[in-house]
Design brief:
This protein has 161 residues and is of the alpha+beta class. Helices cover 32% and strands 26% of the residues. It has a single domain (9-157), classed as Chemotaxis protein chec. The chain has a six-stranded antiparallel beta sheet with strand order 1-5-6-3-2-4. The longest helix has 13 residues, at 89-101. The two termini are 18 Å apart.
Length: 161
């Protein structure tokens, strides 16, 4: 995406590796879409005008693996959480911190800075405006493998203004 205002894959890889203090492989992947069988976590970011300016979507696996790896929660708990189709409070807190710091991934001269607004976890329903925003054509879809934890998918998007 030459004209994209979303970060290139190497920037996402460096961000995650630096934040998680471990090796992380990032490559092009397939979109993360919520379905009854594939719940997702969605972080929304607001622009200065209060509109949703960006979104980050994690599949259930990456939500748990990234959240667990931030504070070295055992991988077994993360895998159990995936099997249970939830994000437990200990991992949720870490995932929210990743989302908060992740606002910097959306910094771009052609767009105003965004701030982390909130996250919608796999156990909950997505509001209509968030569901609509997930269909944005300006997106980058990634496969992320966190060494020692596991792989999952992440999509970064900018909803249409």
């Amino acid at each position: 995406m030459e004209n994209s205002t979303l970060p290139p894959i190497p920037s996402v890889q460096k961000f995650l590796a630096d934040l998680l203090c471990r090796n992380v492989d990032v490559e092009e992947g397939v979109s993360v879409e919520p379905t009854p069988r594939s719940p997702v976590a969605v972080a929304t970011y607001t622009s200065p005008d209060g509109s949703v300016g960006a979104m980050c979507v994690f599949d259930l696996e990456l939500a748990n693996f990234a959240g667990a790896s931030l504070s070295l929660i055992p991988v077994g708990l993360a895998k159990d959480s995936v099997r249970s189709r939830e994000v437990p409070p200990s991992i949720e807190e870490n995932l929210l911190e990743i989302c908060n710091i992740g606002a910097r991934l959306f910094d771009h001269p052609k767009h105003p800075s965004v701030r982390f607004q909130q996250a919608f976890l796999p156990q909950g329903e997505l509001p209509e405006d968030v569901s609509v925003g997930l269909k944005s054509p300006e997106r980058i879809d990634l496969k992320v493998d966190i060494k020692g934890y596991g792989a999952g998918r992440m999509s970064l998007l900018r909803p249409a203004s």
